[in-house]
Amino acid sequence: MTVAAFMELALYDSDVGYYARAAQRSGRAGDFFTSVDVGPIFGELLARQVIEMAGLVPESRFELVESGAGNGRLSADILRAIRRLDPPLYDRLRLHLVEISAKARAAQPATLDDVSERLASSSPELPDSFNGVVIANELLDALPVHQVVMRPEGLREIYVTATRLGTEDSRLTTTEGALSTPALAEYLARLNIELEPGWRVEINLRAIDWMQSAARRLRRGFIIVIDYGHPARELYSPTHSAGTLTAFAAHTMGGSERPAGAPAWLEDPGNRDLTAHVDFSSVEAAATGAGLTTLGFLDQTYFLLGLLDPDVADLKTRLALKTLILPGGLGSTHKVLILGKEVGSPPLRGCSYRVRVT
What we know:
This protein is of the alpha/beta class. It has helices at 3-12, 41-54, 73-85, 87-92, 102-112, 183-190, 205-217, 232-235, 280-289, 300-307, 315-325, 330-333, and strands at 62-67, 93-98, 119-123, 130-137, 146-151, 154-163, 171-177, 200-203, 218-230, 246-249, 252-254, 273-275, 278-279, 293-299, 334-341. It is built from twelve helices and 15 strands. β10 and β11 form a beta hairpin.
């Protein structure tokens, strides 16, 4: 099977999938750490950007859509901040949580708690048509990717296979074969990327599909994508020529080759997170090709600094902010792509400090 098919089973299968079997996977007791785990300040800062965006969408009903919402923690933080800062917007806002895991969806009402009255839908799919804001925080990096490698004879795809089936020492390993779809070579050709022999990279066709779908369903409003990744010229370069696909378990990363030659991300499928860096160039190109306008692409550090009030006095909040914005951590590894549709090119508060990608 392709690496993408393996990831689909390992992450999202309803019986054995990593995300499908638990309502929450991040945090100190989980396998990895996200901006939401730092505390409510991340959602509160996002709420300020949502409030500004809502002022640019004149429709009487404003839809907040979070894709890859998990149990709804981020949306809960955003809604509580909006209720405090802009009660009229809170009253006209409807929340849609998009999440594939049935267990996570079941946990959403309890997580939302006092703001659950704003929940309009909880589904694996984006709403068909809406005006408002879509937020995708660390969604695209968890979508299944194809992995390819350049050989002297041309581009080859990596496949996952099992050896010694039916025996006690059966295991998963990888092999190379012809491309499963011409879309993989076409993807690199669109970017004008020429891989050197031996380079191994990931191609996320699903991220393109997601962006095109979100752009089609959004009538007027904005899309905010927050994830770790790079422009294509950096992602497909000597720096990342071994690929970025990796696994996380108990806050430990595993991605290197095992002595037997099989990659570590094949170990213990269904019990570890699998992730690969996002190609923001292709995601942005898919968005603009679908009628969206790029309003900003910047480090999370600069995005949050633009939304920050300068008089933060609470020590706990200041420590949380430090975690969110310090270079070398979440602040610089995470990028923010802001897109608009039928809203012109407004100067946004989140882009007011500095629009820079490091």
